[in-house]
UniProtKB/TrEMBL annotation:
<dbReference type="GO" id="GO:0040029">
    <property type="term" value="P:epigenetic regulation of gene expression"/>
</dbReference>
<comment type="similarity">
    <text>Belongs to the histone deacetylase family.</text>
</comment>
<feature type="domain" description="Histone deacetylase">
    <location>
        <begin position="20"/>
        <end position="305"/>
    </location>
</feature>
<protein>
    <submittedName>
        <fullName>Histone deacetylase family protein</fullName>
    </submittedName>
</protein>
<dbReference type="InterPro" id="IPR037138">
    <property type="entry name" value="His_deacetylse_dom_sf"/>
</dbReference>
<dbReference type="InterPro" id="IPR023801">
    <property type="entry name" value="His_deacetylse_dom"/>
</dbReference>
<dbReference type="InterPro" id="IPR023696">
    <property type="entry name" value="Ureohydrolase_dom_sf"/>
</dbReference>
<dbReference type="GO" id="GO:0004407">
    <property type="term" value="F:histone deacetylase activity"/>
</dbReference>
<dbReference type="InterPro" id="IPR000286">
    <property type="entry name" value="HDACs"/>
</dbReference>
<dbReference type="Pfam" id="PF00850">
    <property type="entry name" value="Hist_deacetyl"/>
</dbReference>
Length: 309
């Protein structure tokens, strides 16, 4: 299978305060492990700058303009208690959105089977009009809207296995029958949303919360019982993965106990859904993961599964 890796050096230029978990070293750790010879067959390309038109399908232009005005020329600008912008943040955020859209193009035109956008800052906490949780633009939402507007898709699914609930993605698609959002996450945990009772106005929100301390067995059961049957019924024309790896047992920001094999298993299960309904089309977008070793090993398992099926 052919897999595309989208990356860019600007992701290193989004600087956060000393000690902040969402740091440039995350990208360096991923880059190092993907240099291994077993990843040499992967196709690689630079993430382009996303257009404001593409971003505005998920976020009002007034919000985009507000963020642009906040972007500092020097120093840092605080957006909320744990979300800050540096002079390099604006380009990194634009390329995160652009990389997600390029991944959609390459996959839906069958130039590659699937794609992984190794971008930062992450995106799934970004609501329609609110930055939070290290996130500015919701890259998965931008990609879904792009697939619908540019490629004419009717049904897109976003599946999120980050340890934190993707409140932003849920907010954007709460009343949308054409996009299904499915999430496994620890609960209780930041941001406090994601109860199983939160199903959206069109019943296309599927939350499968996990209790602190749970591991691979509970994670796989949540997929098997709550998520995969709903995806089968929805029959998406594109599968987008919000690929957060902070549910790994090593991660300092979560309390779940997943290991690399669990992420590989979930990836394979979602590829099976895509093989059945989406002509194999899978786009994966990096979200969280803050222990560098756990992140690197999990990304390697995820990408190797994308490559080999």
């Amino acid at each position: 299978m052919s897999t595309l890796l989208l990356h860019h050096s600007s992701y290193l230029d989004h600087l956060t305060p000393v000690g902040h978990p969402e740091r440039p070293d995350r990208i360096r750790a991923i880059d190092r492990i993907l240099e291994h010879e077993k990843f040499q067959p992967i196709e690689r390309d630079l993430a382009p700058v996303g257009t404001l038109e593409d971003i505005a399908r998920a976020h009002p232009m007034s919000y985009v303009d507000h963020l642009h005005r906040l972007a500092p020329e020097e120093g840092t600008a605080r957006v909320d208690a744990d979300t800050t912008m540096s002079p390099g943040t604006w380009e990194a955020a634009l390329r995160g959105a652009g990389g997600a859209c390029r991944a959609v193009d390459e996959v839906l035109t069958k130039k590659v089977n699937n794609a992984f956008s190794a971008s930062r800052p992450p995106g799934h906490h970004a609501e329609k009009e609110r930055s939070m949780g290290f996130c500015f633009f919701n890259n998965a939402a931008v990609a879904a809207r792009y697939a619908q507007a540019v490629h004419g898709l009717g049904r897109v699914a976003i599946i999120d296995f980050d340890v934190h609930h993707g409140n932003g993605t849920q907010d954007i698609f709460w009343d949308d029958a054409t996009v299904m959002y499915c999430s496994t996450h620890q609960m209780p945990l930041y941001p406090g949303s994601g109860a199983a009772s939160e199903t959206g106005e069109a019943n296309t929100i599927v939350n499968a919360p996990l209790a602190p301390g749970e591991g691979g067995a509970a994670f796989r059961e949540a997929f098997d019982i709550a998520i995969l049957p709903r995806l089968e019924d929805f029959a998406p024309e594109l599968v987008i993965i919000s690929a957060g790896f902070d549910a790994h047992a090593r991660d300092p920001l979560g309390g779940l106990n997943l290991v690399e094999a669990d992420f590989a298993w979930a990836t394979r299960a979602l590829m099976d859904v895509a093989d059945k309904h989406s002509n194999g089309a899978v786009v994966s977008i990096l979200e969280g993961g803050y222990d560098l070793e756990g992140l690197a090993r999990s990304v390697a398992a995820h990408v190797l599964t994308l490559m080999t099926g």
